[in-house]
Amino acid sequence: MKPVIYVTRKIPDHVLKPYEDSFDVRMWDQEEEPVPRDVLLREVKSADGILCLLTEKVDKELLDAAKHLKVVANMAVGYDNIDVEAAREHGVVVTNTPDVLTETTADLAFALLVAAARRIVEATDYIRKGKWEHWSPYLLAGSDIYGKKIGIVGMGRIGEAVARRAKGFGMSILYHNRSRKESAERELGAAYRGFTGLLQEADFVVSLVPLTDETKKMFDQDAFRNMKPSAVFVNVSRGGAVDEQALYDALVNEEIRTAGLDVFDQEPIAPDHPLMKLDSVICLPHIGSASVDTRTRMLELCLDNLKAVLHGEQPITPVR
Ligand code: DGY
């Protein structure tokens, strides 16, 4: 008998096809709507593996309900939606999708940085609203990028990929991380700073930290007050790393200039959320890794991880 996997969102047939001999696939039938919790709790009872997204909470309740579960493949590099400790206690392997999304997510981080600095969205709206009448010297003038300092908080794979882009743009690179990254210092000329030192010195602050107890709301009122009034803040990691009220206050009180956000504390962010009302903020619906090729690679990596574990092999990208 083939192992049973439950896929928590409808994914394309062509992605599943190469795996049809490996599993008996059961799947939630909606592409955009997450699987309701009661359906998930029912489906996991008979599953040997699940392919889930960051919209699903894999917690003790779910792990207790799952009688045969051996592996959870999370379609994301971040795994704060999973109680990894509880999974370990239940003997369930957890895998994520590092590497395959690094460059795509770094592209989006840089796109937000450039768009926020050069007021790209505001400028498009300016034309749409029929406001463009003349060329003028300081019309929609933003901040330069070349020659400025980027401060990357969280120098993992994506951080290094952002640093490579920054180097190409003629920026100097500061970083803060739990441990020093000698390769980034040697190859990219990145300079390590303490958190406060980086905030005080950087023109652009980019958050790439995973969400953990240590990083929860690390960008708080003090952090924004330490930034330059001209600072551009970019977050492409997790919304929970930011105190959104403090960010809002910092923008309104002109303690920082602008922000580019791909992630929020509560997702989806409400269209009438105070941050959405500020011209100085660009908000995106968590699309850091959203290119067709990368999303397909992420799904394939999940399926390869499920296949490996359910066929008695080592997972390719386990969460340790
Ligand atoms: C991740 O991988 O953690 C992203 O947030 C979704 O691509």
Automatic annotation (TrEMBL):
PANTHER family: 2-HYDROXYACID DEHYDROGENASE-RELATED, GLYOXYLATE_HYDROXYPYRUVATE REDUCTASE B. Belongs to the D-isomer specific 2-hydroxyacid dehydrogenase family. It comes from the Bacteria. Residues 110-288 form the D-isomer specific 2-hydroxyacid dehydrogenase NAD-binding domain. Keywords: Oxidoreductase. It comes from Lentibacillus halodurans. This is Glyoxylate reductase. Residues 6-319 form the D-isomer specific 2-hydroxyacid dehydrogenase catalytic domain. GO terms for molecular function: glyoxylate reductase (NADPH) activity; hydroxypyruvate reductase [NAD(P)H] activity; NAD binding. InterPro entries: D-isomer_2-hydroxyacid_DH, D-isomer_2_OHA_DH_cat_dom, D-isomer_DH_CS1, D-isomer_DH_NAD-bd, NAD(P)-bd_dom_sf. GO terms for cellular component: cytosol.
